[in-house]
Amino acid sequence: MATRLPSAWKDELLARTDIVSVVSGYVTLKKDGRRYWGLCPFHNEKTPSFSVNPDMNMYYCFGCKATGDAIRFVMEMERAPFMDAVKILADRAHMSMPELQDDPDYERRRSQRERLFAANRDAARYYHDTLWKPEGKAALDYLHGRGLTDGVIRRFGLGASTNQWDDLTKYLIDKGYSQEELNLAGLTVVKEDSAYDMFRSRVIFPIIDQYNHVLGFGGRAMQKDAKPKYLNTADTPVFNKRKGVYAINLIRKSRDLKRIILVEGYMDVVAISQAGVTGAVATLGTALTNEQARLLGRYAPEVYLCYDGDEAGQHAIERGLDILEAEGVPCRVIYLPDGLDPDEFIRQRGLAAFEDLQPMRPPAYRMQRLKLQYDLSSQDGRTEYAKKCAELLRTVRDPVDLENYLESLTVQTGFSRDVLLAQVGAQTAGKDTAAALLPQREQPARERRARRPDGYKTEQTLLSLLATGRLPKDMVKETDFHSETLRLIAGRLIGGETPDAIVSDEDLTDSERQEAGEAFSLLTGAEIDNAAEVAGDCLRKMRIAHLQQEMNQLTESLQTLDGEKKLQMLTEIQGLSKELEQLKQQGR
Q: Hey, how many other C-beta atoms are within 10 angstroms of the C-beta on 400?
């Protein structure tokens, strides 16, 4: 698909794309020198090794060797095909796709999205301003009654809608929006010849995405008999409730987040955040979806499910675990006793009690849920419970975890560890330990790099200097490089290609891409500022290495020669030795 894009158009897209801004939508970055650093989104790490180089418009991880340009980054993070990632970046850069540049309908859709985002933003400001006016008193009293401070109300941008039919609609039309646009945004309901506000007499929760676009709203009714209690914006051209989560815009700004806590409702998020709980988000009036699970997996190493303690909440947890595990997102469960929801629990028992709750791993939680279905006072009940738990434990790959679950199950059922292990299916010939469950370790996805020859680091440095574009023309030649891969990359740089275009080339092997990304990410500020001087030193060192290798080969060949040929070779070695000494003297 990549070859279908005109090179000039793709170059313009990358030139107009701020890769730091793109990556910051997923990774918390901190500037250090010329680069930005953060925790790699592609592998678990505690010390930042992921770098973004705005000068070369590319990223590189010194840990897992992931590298590429903005397009490749979006492909990896969104799990999107090449063209889908290009479209995402084209929208950000306000560029038409090449085949759609003369398509008026495409331009209309793009312009429409921008108008709907703007209408939602103005509506959010209107609702927030209304909250502090006399007509918003009931909503503000409700929020204060729930224990919320003015500070947290402002942080989440909470608002109020009046009890009038079309206050917001009139306000936005006066600002220049059309009735059709307001209807498309889900702000106004149009029926026959009448138009009225979607939200009336409600506390308003703006739904904001990770890019700070206001997508839609959730509204809680003020009147006790109002139905539904919570009303959410329907799907629109800019909002799909399956794909976003509430408060993801605040999560994106959090640093060193160890886990995300997924709760059921907007108020739970706001209330427990005020109490001091970090990383709280909620789904948007739906059960957890695969799209939401993938989104959450980008922002923290684990997701904790903390739904209401009633039976409905527990069923939702079980479904949520299935979704998270299917998407490969590590997860646990915070179980709330006595049927409480997170807000109630913290208000009644305090933040310390909430933090003392021990997150349960999925097998332990599922075993707890299974326990409710059987009468463990009877032999039949214990037997069936043990069999069902054994089915669950077949998926456990960590022998220590498995041993803990078996120990607990032994206490609960009375069956011996060996019997339970046999039921799990771990007993094999001569093996009766939990380790028998473990599969053979697979080889890493990325091939191990071959041992590099002497002088490789110097060639890498020279290639990196060449990539800066700061070297005099013709100072470096493709033939200066002995590494086949580095010679290939150098040729492309000399031919006018940019580093970001090279590392994103789909024709490169993973190994070649990693070598290119590693080389392009070597330099410090001082080396870049003195590029020509450092390059000259690299060329001298490479020439010394080449001469030394040539002399060694000739010296070995002397043993097989005699007479005139031997004298000729000795003369040649002396000449090389003299040149070698001169180069070394230059270095001194």
A: 9
Which tokens hold the place of 21? 């801004």
Element (H, E) at 269: helix 266-275
Question: Do 120 and 172 touch, CB atoms closer than 8 A?
Answer: no
CA distance 334 to 321: 12
Q: Which of 144, 143, 147, 141 is nearest to 347 (CA)?
A: 147
3-state secondary structure of 342: helix
pLDDT tens digits, residue range 470-496?
888 888 888 888 888 888 888 888 888
Residues 231, 111 within the same domain: yes
Residue 279 to residue 261: CA distance in whole angstroms: 6
Identify whether residues 276 and 235 lie together within a single domain: no
Single out the residue in 100, 127, 148 at which a domain terminates: 100
* Strand (E) or helix (H) holding 194: strand 194-197
Q: Is the pTM of this model over 0.85?
A: no
Return the number of other C-beta atoms located less than 10 Å from residue 394's C-beta: 13
Coil, strand, or helix at residue 343?
helix
- Per-residue 3-state assignment (H helix, E strand, C coil) for 382-411: HHHHHHHHHHHHCCCCCHHHHHHHHHHHHH
Rounded to an integer, what distance in angstroms lies between the CA atom of residue 48 and that of residue 38? 5
Each residue of 309-367: pLDDT tens digit?
889 999 999 999 999 998 888 999 999 999 899 999 999 999 999 999 999 999 999 99
- Contact assessment for residue 413 and residue 385, using Cβ atoms and an 8 Å cutoff: yes
Following DSSP, what letter does each residue of 457-487 receive, concatenated? HHHHHHHHHHHTT-SPTTSS-GGG--SHHHH
The span from the CA of 311 to the CA of 324, in Å, is 20
Last-in-domain residue among 39, 73, 100: 100
> What is residue 386's three-state secondary structure?
helix
Report whether the peptide linkage leading into residue 228 is cis, meaning its omega lies within 30 degrees of zero. yes
φ, ψ of residue 262 to 5 degrees: the values are: -95, 120
